[in-house]
Amino acid sequence: MAERTTYHEQTDLNNILKLREVLGTLPPYVKDYFRAIDASSTTKTRLSYAYDLRVFFEFLKNNNPLYKNNNLTDFRLSDLEKVTAKDIEEYMEYLKVYSSPEERIRGVSRNTNGSLGLKRKMSALRSFYAYLFKSEMIKTNPTVLIDMPKIHEKTIVRLDSGEVAALLDYIENCGGTLKGQALRYYEKTRERDIALVTLLLGTGIRVSECVGLDVEDIDFRNNGIKIIRKGGNEAVVYFGAEVEKALKRYLEIRKGITPAAGHEHALFYSTQRKRMNVKSVENLVEKYASCVTTTKKITPHKLRSTYGTALYKETGDIYLVADVLGHKDVNTTRKHYAAMDDDRRRKAADAVHLREKTGNN
Asked: Which among 4, 78, 241, 360 is least buried, having the fewest CB atoms inside 10 angstroms?
């Protein structure tokens, strides 16, 4: 019997093929950079960096008359040496809203980047220039003269305990509010949706880890699931009785599904009998959550934040939270989950008295 190819292995293969395709549109020396970072980065990171660097070369082509007739593959190392710090600043401004001439002709909507998107694209460019400079392929590195974009801290968006219960209750019982095709779809996916959302809320796993699960990854003897963490490391995450019950109910339904070829091992199936993808899970969570709360935009990552916050409140152990969530640096966890919660803030309102209490007050 042929060895089973896991979801993550197949994803890596697809990313490698896409990366080769993108590199074919860029100057030959760019391949040297990607070979250099191969061992220290994931295929997803390398593919993202390749797309980001292509945007940079498109910027040089579209914003300098000297290069307007160039193909991207025509750029020489000497052209990169001519790039100044001012050019990099203009590139950062360009990244906020941009589209290539080809995209404008096709009517493609403009691309935009917030602070996180800007930082990632600048990280890709800095890493690329640093490699060329260290390898003595260029003599200047203008990217070190530019400050990285500041990332503005955002309040953690999460569900409170009442909203968690309301969300699960809604998924279980909303069939009475539906009719026709919507009701038939709901009845077909109900147990799957309950199991999926319960699993996300009860373990804090990432959506990519969730869709990558195979049925063989569940161990009911120890109530654990084997997942592939961000970065490719394998880990076991344990779940409680509520998750166990929801998974077992779904697995009974799953037995009656004939999967599409190549998807036999997937834990969660789409209505097309294929492995669910990240986007379909995101849509599923947002659909149900929007019926429970209109003031919070809830995504799978927000369910992860909900779990992390609840675990920290219950245990007060930031190292445990970091380990369960798969954070490599506990400071990342502390930054997000060790902030004072709303209850403590409310207590602070009455903790300080501006005037001494008297018998008349």
From this structure: 360
Q: Mark the ranges of the chain whose per-residue pLDDT is less than 70.
A: 1-3, 100-109, 153, 338-350, 353, 356-361
Q: Kindly report the number of other CB atoms within 10 A of residue 183's CB atom.
A: 14
* Residues in CB range of 341: below 8 A, 6 or more apart: 309, 313
Place of tokens 């990217």: 143
| Chain segment 313-354, per-residue pLDDT in tens | 888 888 999 999 998 888 888 877 765 455 556 666 667 767
For residue 267, what is the DSSP state? S
**Beta carbons within 8 Å of 358's beta carbon, 6+ residues apart:** none
Q: Which domains are present in the chain? A: 7-145 (1.10.150.130), 161-340 (1.10.443.10)
User: What are the two backbone dihedrals, phi and then psi, of residue 97, each rounded to the nearest 5 degrees?
Assistant: -150, 120
Three-class secondary structure of residue 2 per DSSP: coil
Helix (H, G, I), strand (E, B) or coil at 112: strand
Q: Which residues contact 186 (CB under 8 A, 6 or more apart)?
A: 174, 175, 178
Measured between alpha carbons, how far is 286 from 343 in angstroms, rounded to an integer?
Answer: 26
First to last CA, the chain: 82
- Pairing assessment for the beta strands 218-219 and 224-228 based on DSSP bridges: antiparallel
With H, G, I as helix, E, B as strand and everything else as coil, classify residue 280. Answer: helix
